[in-house]
Amino acid sequence: MFGLFKGAQPKTVHIEGLDAPLQVNPRETILTAALRQGVRFPHSCRVGGCASCKCQLKRGTVKELTESAYILSEQDLAQGYILACQAVPKTDLTIRVDNLQAGGPDFSPARVAGTVAQIHRHTHDIVELAITLEQPLSYAAGQYALLSVPGLIETPRSYSFATAPLAGGNRDIRFFIRAVPGGQMSQWAQQPSLVGTAVQVEGPFGDFYLRDSEQPILCIAGGSGLAPVKALLEDALAFKCARPVTFLFGARTQRDLYCLDALRTLQQNWATDFRFIPVLSEEPVTSDWRGARGLVTDFIAAHAQPHAQVYMCGPPAMLDAAEPHLLRAGIPAEQIFSDRFLDRSALARSA
Ligand SMILES: Cc1cc2nc3c(=O)[nH]c(=O)nc-3n(C[C@H](O)[C@H](O)[C@H](O)COP(=O)(O)OP(=O)(O)OC[C@H]3O[C@@H](n4cnc5c(N)ncnc54)[C@H](O)[C@@H]3O)c2cc1C
């Protein structure tokens, strides 16, 4: 009789090295419970696509919401690694987390109602969506939030904050949203008539933030991946960061470049070297473009110093292509930080 209700009981998850265990509600993932309880669990996409939240299951069993085998290595799987964002405990658990964070952002996620305040078109497929929140939301530059539209798009989508945070939290937040063909939220966001529409914002999430260091910074962004990189650099400027920056910004043609004034302002006010290199992959050869042509990855070897720290954001294909070039340039994997803008097509493929 009691067995019938067994699955509906909260479970306890012990994280090795932490005194207080997590209480995980029925159907809740380990990651959601950890973030809800203020544990700085490493994570990024939260949808099973990046493996930032992998942890080792030492005791107990979990139900996996998506197949983790495609993203974890054979060695990880053999050692019992699971994805915390996709694992719902079936029993009490003990897990080990390799990189429980020290020194990263520790804002507990909050759910806040807001209203679309403004839509600004940056390019033919990227808009800036400005939202006024009912209460201020604190975040670290580089992090993202979950956006939903009550009554219309209830399944939230992730968007990175495009501006630097303010002390005490932001009531005005901005996202850069690129139209994805057949995409529900990103097509919704392209409409000019959205001002006044009620939205829900939950966050912050993610561990894409500027690490404390003296190392030179290499940023790589493509499309709307500019949002978190711009926020991160604007925040660093406000804190008088003096690390040299090289910023490779990948776009197809000149009409895909945007925020150039904001980037120029950053460059002019930066305390040390700031090289901004837009790279166009499909610009007509007959055009007046005198800048770099090709793929962003073609320029990594020339600009990546082995002691640089890398921050990259954008389409997963671009990030996947960039990583081997960075490793070949001598940059260790631990110095490469990225946010992959995964969408549901990628997740459907992995499932
Ligand atoms: C951490 C993170 C940060 C992000 N930040 C940003 C950002 O700042 N800016 C930005 O523009 N994007 C960002 N993204 C991507 C964003 O969250 C959305 O995925 C993107 O906007 C597409 O959402 P959508 O609702 O328009 O598309 P969806 O409706 O989710 O569809 C996406 C694509 O998948 C296809 N599809 C849908 N369902 C299925 C299915 N079942 N099987 C196969 N194909 C399917 C659709 O046809 C479409 O082509 C981020 C993603 C992550 C993970």
Report on this structure.
With 351 residues, the protein is of the alpha/beta class. Helix content is 18%, strand content 33%. It contains eight helices and 19 strands. The protein has helices at residues 30-36, 74-78, 184-188, 226-238, 260-269, 300-303, 316-328, 344-350, and strands spanning 11-15, 22-24, 54-59, 62-64, 81-83, 87-89, 93-96, 110-121, 126-137, 144-149, 153-160, 170-178, 198-205, 217-222, 245-251, 274-280, 292-293, 309-314, 336-340. The chain has a six-stranded antiparallel β-sheet. A six-stranded parallel β-sheet has the order 17-16-15-14-18-19, sandwiched between helices. Helix 4 packs parallel to helix 5 (260-269). The two termini are 35 Å apart. Mean pLDDT is 92; it is low at 1-5. Bound molecules: flavin-adenine dinucleotide.
